[in-house]
Specification:
The protein has helices spanning 53-60, 78-85, 123-130, 153-156, 171-184, 234-244, 249-264, 270-279, 284-300, 313-322, 337-348, and strands spanning 2-7, 10-15, 26-31, 36-47, 88-99, 102-104, 116-121, 137-142, 148-152, 188-193, 216-219, 326-331, 358-361. It is an alpha+beta fold and 365 residues long. Helix 6 runs antiparallel to helix 7, helix 7 (249-264) crosses helix 8 (270-279) and helix 7 (249-264) crosses helix 9 (284-300). The protein binds adenosine-5'-triphosphate and magnesium ion (MG).
């Protein structure tokens, strides 16, 4: 393999017949003089576009009438041309650099074409260098080179981890695997389930209850998940009104005063809020703006004045923690997009931030 081109964080590498490289594999481009090495992953494979090869292919095709006579190749170049015809261009994404035995997130240097050697990098060495297998391994499966791949649950904790990939490539499958493995380690996981695809985590393929069944709680906003205004912090409501329901700044300031007024008097209920907006002394436009958002809150069904039907989200989290791990799935599949934006806010009432798809919280060790 030879280094051909570098553009941004993409490398183009020429690979010759006999050098079998597959998409997804990692390569190590070691520059002896610079004493460092670049790690790149093959993301696509094309035929090398060598000038003249196309012409040669066309000439050698059987489509035309064959000419009589003998083939002359006094310089013996036919074998070279055939060799080049099968040369491939590996499109690779640079993932980092190894310097002094350390892996760094660096891709700005240019390895030498002359002094570099390129070889495949086995997943085992890569994992060792990346220091991925830590204290709480989550086994994901096997790599192409039959290496059992695991990620460390502790390395996922407290970070924003994003799983990306083309449609149908197993993103949800991986998320579910992570959720169940995190539960095994005693973590509490909150899932904002936009498509309702995590609601059957507690069941096996045949529909029977699995060993996670008792540890998974499904909450449907407006039905099995409602909160009182008392449970909801003012800043959560303010964010809902401003970002999800587009309440302008002046009206938002007025709303804050109404909320504080009701709080002081112990009348922070849906009923009390509606009444206060109606009777509040303020500009009619502001009043209308507030009332329309109040109606949206009311119609969403997320809020209730009945303590008995309100969900103690904080209590559910504590229960899952005490029970040695569990998941709370907030099923947003039947919720309208605007209510959905609002729906994730009550989950925030406890003051805990929630990620868009899931968020694991490992017990402190
Ligand atoms: N590692 C795996 N082993 C076995 N089956 C898998 C694996 N990963 C995914 N699948 C199966 O492949 C199919 C597609 O996977 P999945 O739904 O997880 O993909 P996705 O990336 O979430 O798709 P979408 O982009 O449509 O959300 C599913 O039937 C899933 O069960
Ligand atoms: Mg999916």
């Amino acid at each position: 393999m030879r280094l051909f081109r570098k553009a941004g964080n993409t490398l183009h590498i020429l690979s010759f017949p006999g050098e079998e490289v597959e998409k997804g594999e990692y390569l190590l481009i070691r520059d002896r003089k610079a004493d460092k090495a670049m790690i790149a992953q093959v993301i696509d494979i094309e035929f090398a576009n060598v000038p003249g090869v196309m012409e040669e292919l066309l000439r050698s095709s059987d489509a035309g009438d064959s000419l009589s006579g003998e083939d002359e190749d006094p310089l013996g170049i036919t074998s070279h041309i055939l060799y080049i015809q099968d040369a491939r261009l590996l499109i690779c994404k640079i993932h980092g650099t190894i310097m002094n035995g350390e892996l760094r997130q660096e891709n700005s240097w240019l390895p030498s074409r002359m002094n570099s050697t390129i070889c495949k990098l086995p997943t085992e060495s890569l994992v060792e260098m990346a220091d991925m297998d830590g204290g709480l391994p989550i086994r994901l499966g096997e790599t192409q080179d039959s290496f059992p791949l695991a990620v460390d649950a502790l390395q996922l904790d407290g970070k924003l981890n994003i799983i990306t990939g083309k449609k149908g490539t197993g993103k949800s499958h991986l998320s579910k695997l992570l959720v169940l493995s995190l539960i095994d380690y005693g973590a509490v996981v909150v899932i904002l389930d936009i498509n309702g695809e995590y609601t059957n985590l507690g069941y096996g393929k045949d529909g029977s209850k699995n060993r996670y069944h008792g540890k998974i709680r499904i909450l449907t906003p407006g039905r099995s998940f409602k909160v009182t205004l008392y449970q909801t912090e003012l800043y959560v409501i303010m964010r809902t009104l401003t970002y999800a329901l587009g309440l302008p700044g002046t009206s938002a300031r007025e709303f804050r005063q109404i909320w504080r007024f009701l709080e002081k008097r112990g009348r922070l209920t849906l009923h009390g809020l509606g009444e206060a907006i109606q009777n509040w002394k303020c500009n009619q436009h502001v009043k209308d703006a507030l009332y329309s958002r109040y109606s949206a809150l009311l119609n969403s069904g997320f809020f209730t004045d009945n303590m008995a039907e309100a969900t103690d989200f904080e209590g559910l989290l504590r229960k899952a923690e005490r029970g040695g791990g569990g998941a709370i799935v907030i099923d947003l599949s039947g919720t309208s997009p605007s209510d959905r934006r609002m729906g994730v806010r009550p989950g925030e009432a406890s003051g805990r931030p929630l990620a868009v798809e899931d968020k694991g919280r490992l017990p402190l060790r």
